[in-house]
Amino acid sequence: MSLMHGLKKNLNRAGTSLRQRAGWVDNTLDQEFEDEYERFKAMQKNVEKLSKEIKHFLEAIRAMCIAQRSMSQIIGQFVNHELTAGMVQYQKLLERLDGEIRIEFDKEFRDTVLEPLTRLCSYFPAVEDAIKRRHKKALDYDNERAKVRKLIDKPSEDPNRLPMAEEIANQAREHYEGLNTILVEDLPKMVEMRVPYIDPSFEALVKLQLKLSEVFYAEFQNIQDSFQPEQQKAEADDLLQDMRQLTICGNY
């Protein structure tokens, strides 16, 4: 019985919606709600987009660390594992960066940046459900109002039909206005809360980026003495010159 009742209500709402499009039934509008709903949708879109980009950023950090380790391994294969002291230090450094340092960064990033945004996004479906319920209640109210107007325009032989229809319409109006009032009051509160909610995550994002950059810089500084750029450049230039003398490189 409950299933049939729900199906009947959905069919009635669909019919009311079609009649509204045709201009046969009045459409209840609340401009204040419409304005607040537009603001909410804009916030929702931006927060979901931000959350998506934050995830991409974290994935990019992981990908960078993995790529660096792969490069060091390929370099080892390239020189047939005859690694210089600098290459050994470089490989150990990248293993550490992709290990404990990245894992620590990943955990802090999830706890202070990603999880708060994910929780905020998790509230949006409940708000959308409330907005859908409001829309349904508005259709119910418009449908009952249309019945009352029809009975006024064409009175029934039964004198009780109009009072009963008016009572049902009033109940539908109360249900609609109750939910509409809640949304009109709560939507702007949720929108206004976005800045103080996101600010700590944004601050954590900046601090974590700075911390990671400083750690990377300090770690690479520790091994820079193993490399002498000017000497290595001169050696590379000499080797390239020797390569140019090879027949396979065009000297024939």
Give a brief rundown of this model.
By secondary structure, the protein is an all-alpha fold. It is built from 7 helices and no strands.
Description:
- The protein has 252 residues and is mainly alpha-helical.
- Among the domains are: 46-122 and 199-224; 124-192.
- The protein has seven helices and no strands.
- The chain has helices at residues 2-21, 31-78, 85-122, 124-153, 161-192, 194-223, 229-244.
- The relative contact order is 0.11.
- The mean pLDDT is 81.
- It is found in: Cytoplasm, Cytoskeleton.
- Keywords: Coiled coil, Cytoplasm, Cytoskeleton.
- Residues 33-60 form a coiled coil.
Keywords:
BIN3/RVS161-like; 252 residues; coiled coil; rod-shaped; mainly alpha; 7 helices
List the helices and strands and how they pair.
Layout (H helix, E strand, L loop, with lengths): L1 H20 L9 H48 L6 H38 L1 H30 L7 H32 L1 H30 L5 H16 L8
GO molecular function, one term: lipid binding
InterPro entries: AH/BAR_dom_sf, BAR_dom, BIN3/RVS161-like
Keywords: Coiled coil, Cytoplasm, Cytoskeleton
